[in-house]
Design brief:
The chain has seven helices and twelve strands. With 267 residues, the chain is of the alpha+beta class. The protein has two domains: 137 residues, 2-Layer Sandwich (Fructose-1,6-Bisphosphatase, Chain A, domain 1), CATH 3.30.540.10; 113 residues, D-Maltodextrin-Binding Protein, domain 2. Helix 5 runs parallel beside helix 6. The structure holds D-MYO-inositol-1-phosphate and calcium ion. D-MYO-inositol-1-phosphate (IPD) binds next to strand 2 and helix 3.
Length: 267
């Protein structure tokens, strides 16, 4: 049975509380699909509301910790060495289209290091969580990355550049190279969940560029605590602020890195 620390309890309670209204909002969004205007404003409000609810709950229990969130200004807390990094809805486009693959992502950064993280998928009620040095879990179950070593057996997650996201001129070459060697590529629409899926061994690997810290802060810890290698797509150190990420078990990480490098090589 997984043992949650007092801090993790606070985080999980905050996320569950914020998710209740979000689940109701999602039901409403499904109804709005048929309206001409679509659910755009409604979704923006759901996003902001979730952000507010998370902040409120976290501030109540840990008033000294600051925030970096997708929806608001950064807030430096009384304890400037710690902040929550929050994405209230990762997978907003899915949410807006009534597709149930979205998640709340909350991470705690302490002295520049992510020490706790949650990716919660409210529709499937899957709570992925990790604390540094304590392993990664899905609800009560300990997670391990997939052990597959043969690229031909792997399912790889990715994010395809789209409107409003910096385009990556190398992307199609990278995708071609990886698609040619793996059993399947998935574009799920939530980088936070993609990394949680790597942690759970559902995806054998994941790569994407152009991400923001709140998309991946909790997911990086989850994947690492489950045994994944997590680097930038050039193999370099910390992907958090570069927004450029490659996660997989060691063997698959090495192969994907070579494929990406080769695809990027100037002709
Ligand atoms: C997006 C998701 C998506 C990724 C995008 C992100 P959002 O976050 O993580 O998978 O491909 O680049 O911006 O906008 O849904 O919070
Ligand atoms: Ca996001």
């Amino acid at each position: 049975m997984a043992r949650t620390s007092p801090l993790m309890n606070i985080m999980q309670q905050a996320v569950r509380k914020a998710s209740r209204r979000l689940v109701r909002d999602f039901g409403e969004v499904e109804n709005l699909q048929v309206s001409r205007k679509g659910p755009g404003d409604f979704v923006t409000n759901a996003d902001i509301r979730t952000d507010e609810k998370l902040r409120e709950a976290l501030l109540q229990s840990r008033p000294q910790i600051g925030f970096m969130t997708e929806e608001g200004e950064d807030v430096v807390g009384e304890d400037a060495s710690r902040r929550w990094i929050i994405d209230p809805i990762d997978g907003t486009t899915n949410f807006m289209h009534g597709i149930p693959m979205f998640a709340i992502s909350v991470a705690l950064e302490e002295a520049g290091e992510i020490t706790a993280g949650i990716v919660y998928a409210p529709i499937s009620d899957e709570m992925f969580w990790a604390e540094k040095g304590q392993g990664a879990y899905l609800n009560d179950r300990r997670l391990r990355v997939a052990a597959r070593r043969d690229m031909g057996d792997t399912v790889i997650g990715t994010g395809i550049p789209h409107l409003g996201r910096a385009s990556n001129p190398d992307y199609l070459a990278e995708m071609n190279a990886i698609a040619a060697e793996c059993a399947g590529i998935r574009r799920m629409g939530s980088a936070a969940l993609d990394l949680a899926y790597v942690a759970a061994g559902r995806f054998d690997g994941f790569w994407e560029t152009g991400l923001r810290p709140w998309d991946i802060a909790a997911g990086i810890l989850l994947a690492r605590e489950a045994g994944a290698m997590v680097t930038r797509t050039d193999g370099g150190g910390d992907p958090l602020f570069k927004g450029d990420i490659l996660a997989a078990n060691e063997a698959i990480h090495g192969r994907m890195l070579r494929l990406i490098r080769h695809a990027r090589r100037p002709a």
